[in-house]
Amino acid sequence: MAYSYSEVEGKRAHDPLAVGIAVKSAKCIWVAGPIIVGAGPSGLAAAACLKQRGVPSVILERSNCIASLWKNRTYDRLRLHLPKQFCELPLMPFPKNFPTYPTKQQFVAYLDTYVSRFDLKPVFGTTVVSAEFDPICRFWRVKTSSGTKCLDFEYTSRWLIVATGENAEAFLPKLEGMDDFRGPVLHTSEYKSGDMFCGKRVLVVGCGNSGMEVCLDLCNHNAQPSLVVRDSVHILPQEMLGRSTFGLSMCFLKWFPAHIVDRLLLLVSHFMIGDTAKYGLIRPKLGPLQLKNKTGKTPVLDVGTLSHIKSGKIKVFRGIKRVRHDSVEFVDEKEEKFDAIILATGYRSNVPSWLMDTDMFSKEDGFPKEQFPHTWKGKDGLYAIGFNKRGLLGASMDAWRIAEDIELMWKAETKRFTDLTRAVA
Ligand SMILES: Cc1cc2nc3c(=O)[nH]c(=O)nc-3n(C[C@H](O)[C@H](O)[C@H](O)COP(=O)(O)OP(=O)(O)OC[C@H]3O[C@@H](n4cnc5c(N)ncnc54)[C@H](O)[C@@H]3O)c2cc1C
């Protein structure tokens, strides 16, 4: 049985063969436009750009809301790390009254407005469990699970856009003895605020932007945080020479190569924050921009944590040897007592767990094998958005390219279909 399907995307009730709508049979839904997996900022940006070009799409989202990372898995004091002009999605700027670094609540409100503006209706509570290209029919078969068997479908389409994000799953390292620790051990994705840690000794493992900011939040809530810094790290002031460090870097990169801009950034940083190695924060050999280009590792933009490290309010440790019942032993044989451990150890992509048989993504890390700017397009109508390690700005770039590319094929197919219908008539 095949009948018109209006719940997914198209409001139009049409003939099953019509272009631009999804068609549902007992367990199978044919989507005429692309299927987008993930309703985070990337998936929404792709859908909006496609819609603006007249291409409908279906967004499948495992959680029950848009932007679930921002709504459910981030801490309360979070603000955008980069100035707003580098974080807005295509076709809709941030409101003028937003501050340079919008709060998480403002960013979420912006995304909610974005969804209303472009009338996007993701299918919530729908986890993509497998997606495979059918070489005979030449379309993608996307299987979903919703927790209720009767609501599990197979969606099919010519195009598949992967928008599940670089941060799909929390990365939890295996630390020796961690199961014996008597206090709470949580990932930053579960951390909301330092409220519950007042007066407690808390070990924060990992020195990225999240780890540093959680330490600051703990200080502000009168906890006693310590920080584990295992690898080298670039700490830069969030602003320098009266401008955002990111904006300044972008501006200089128009004129100078990355290694020259790096030297400038490090020189100004040295004047402003001094030699961070004195506090256990050793800089990598490669400059911050070159390192970002080569490995994707983002420099930490300091929002006030460093002054607490300098004053000794936050202790720095080099690496964990093992965890005990109420203490942690470090690689330099020091041992300290702690009441809680927070893992600021980052995230990983989940693409290899559901995308079958493709050359596009690495099975090891779940990222596209190609480097920026070639991460967005694979073979057989497969696309990736938000995997170029360039945050929201990178996702916007991908959205434009993907929409432009699919629009050409969409128009050609629509014309072929119209010609065919005319010929038959
Ligand atoms: C704490 C934090 C702060 C950040 N701050 C900034 C910043 O200031 N500026 C910046 O540019 N970037 C920032 N980032 C980077 C961040 O990754 C992007 O801002 C943005 O959230 C990426 O959007 P996305 O849509 O690609 O991924 P996500 O926001 O992770 O969205 C992916 C969506 O896919 C869904 N999904 C995953 N797997 C499946 C599946 N199998 N089936 C169906 N749905 C699925 C998820 O539920 C999720 O809703 C920050 C990241 C973090 C963690």
TrEMBL record:
One of its GO terms (molecular function) is N,N-dimethylaniline monooxygenase activity. The keyword Membrane does not apply. Keywords: Auxin biosynthesis, FAD, Flavoprotein, Monooxygenase, NADP, Oxidoreductase. InterPro entries: Auxin_biosynth/cation_transpt, FAD/NAD-bd_sf, Flavin_mOase-like. This is Flavin-containing monooxygenase. It comes from the Eukaryota. Pfam families: FMO-like (PF00743). It catalyses: indole-3-pyruvate + NADPH + O2 + H(+) = (indol-3-yl)acetate + CO2 + NADP(+) + H2O. Pathway: Plant hormone metabolism; auxin biosynthesis. Its cofactor is FAD. Its EC number is 1.-.-.-. GO terms for biological process: auxin biosynthetic process. Belongs to the FMO family. The keyword Oxidoreductase applies.
